[in-house]
Design a protein that fits this description.
alpha/beta; Aspartate Aminotransferase, domain 1; 2 domains
């Protein structure tokens, strides 16, 4: 075929298109990259025990799936209000009013495609360059990612083993100031399994009230508590008007793939956050939302059974970890994660996590995947069978024996 020049036309100079520089500022979750590597090893014939992904291994309760199927057959497959269908907003308002002890109006409830968009859009809606955001460290990595993307300054609030991973009030006080625009709290916590006591939340509310800060309270593990009664900073008098109370269906009802979360938000944020959904996702499918109504209003026995099994798994894993050389693990009080200290092992936590996957077939995460304060730790999800947990501890012990 003749070239352009041969046909009498000059050759066109080409230039490779470039990405926006801001893309490099978005972080990610190490769990998904570790999962990808683990799947690659499995394709090569390796047996891998997955303790890296925070996802219940239970099926979605049958009555919830039935409600979605019925809604699809009834034609609930079209656009719906971006803020959420009235039925789900009302059901969420009733649930939050009952469980948090404060009156939540349906008009203050927003429904998102999982909890992540509500988290991300809240940070974008209230933060800009020059603002500071206090967030837990170690903590869910998307907190810091979204803060940096908004141009704000991340201010990590360390969580310590010695305090059972509840933050120190003096350290919180030292991080608050006139530039603090948002404080992110998470209880029960990912990755530590820690729970912030009610008294600490009340004291934190008093400190935050003296600043111009909003609060984002990440409560997606609120139903996965083993000993404590659940406490929310939104329940403290005066705090609901400055708090985005974030929850969802993924963890409680084993609905991670359904992508449905919700939040009760201050009145001033309802319209701005709704605008983000109009621009980004349009709406959560109505049949998914109707499944959410069934989840909240239907029988809760599957949730209780799941929580009881998680507690039994926690006990198996923690006992096993504490029997390993160089490992010390506090008992998680919520969620489904263990966060053992591996400072007594003769290699760093990052190398240990890599070797556990590559040599022992146990997929875990290094604590630094959740922030600098996670150094010297691993995160293990016990959302898998007791048999898998026992086998994982055995494999870990065999590898540690070669190191010592």
């Amino acid at each position: 075929m003749s070239s352009s020049t041969e046909r009498g036309r000059p050759a066109v100079a080409t230039q490779a298109p470039a990405l926006a520089a801001a893309v490099a500022g978005l972080g990610t979750e190490s769990a998904f990259s570790v999962l990808a590597r683990a799947r690659e090893l499995e394709r090569r014939g390796r047996d891998v025990i997955h303790l890296e992904i925070g996802e219940p291994d239970f099926a979605t309760p049958e009555h919830v799936s039935d409600a979605a199927c019925a809604a699809i057959r009834a034609g609930e497959t079209h656009y719906c209000p971006s803020a959420g269908i009235p039925e789900l907003r009302a059901a969420v308002a009733e649930e939050l009013t009952r469980t948090r002890g404060v009156t939540v109006a349906p008009e203050r409830v927003l429904v998102g495609n999982g909890a992540k968009p509500l988290l991300f859009f809240t940070i974008l809606a209230v933060c800009e360059p020059g603002d500071e955001v206090v967030y837990p460290d170690p903590g869910f990595p998307i907190y810091e990612s979204a803060i940096r993307w908004a141009g704000a300054t991340p201010v990590p609030l360390p969580l310590h083993d010695a305090g059972d991973f509840a933050f120190d009030l003096g350290e919180l006080r030292a991080r608050l100031g006139p530039r603090t625009k948002l404080v992110i709290l998470n209880s029960p916590q990912n990755p530590t399994g820690g729970v912030v006591p009610r008294a600490d939340l009340e004291a934190a509310a008093e400190l935050i009230a003296g600043t111009p800060a909003w609060v984002l309270s990440d409560e997606v593990y609120s139903r996965l508590l083993y000993d404590d009664a659940f406490a929310s900073i939104a329940s403290v008098p005066g705090m609901l008007e400055r708090t985005v109370l974030l929850d969802g269906f993924s963890k409680t009802y084993a609905m991670t793939g359904w992508r449905c979360g919700y939040a009760a938000v201050p009145e001033a944020l309802v319209e701005p956050l709704s605008r983000f959904f109009v621009n980004a996702t349009s709406c959560v499918p109505p049949f998914v939302q109707l499944a959410g109504v069934a989840a909240l209003q239907g029988p809760q026995d599957a949730v209780e059974a799941m929580r009881a099994e998680f507690r039994a798994r926690r006990d198996v894993l923690v006992e096993g970890l504490n029997g390993l050389p160089g490992v010390s693990c506090r008992v998680p009080r919520g969620a489904f994660y263990a966060f053992p200290d591996v400072g007594g092992v003769p290699v760093g936590a990052e190398e240990l996590a890599t070797r556990l996957l590559e040599e022992a077939g146990v997929a875990v995460l290094a604590g630094t995947a959740f922030g600098a304060a996670g150094a010297g730790h691993l995160r293990l999800s016990y959302a898998t069978s007791r048999a898998n947990l026992e086998a994982a501890v055995e494999r870990m012990g065999a590898l540690l024996a070669t190191l010592t």
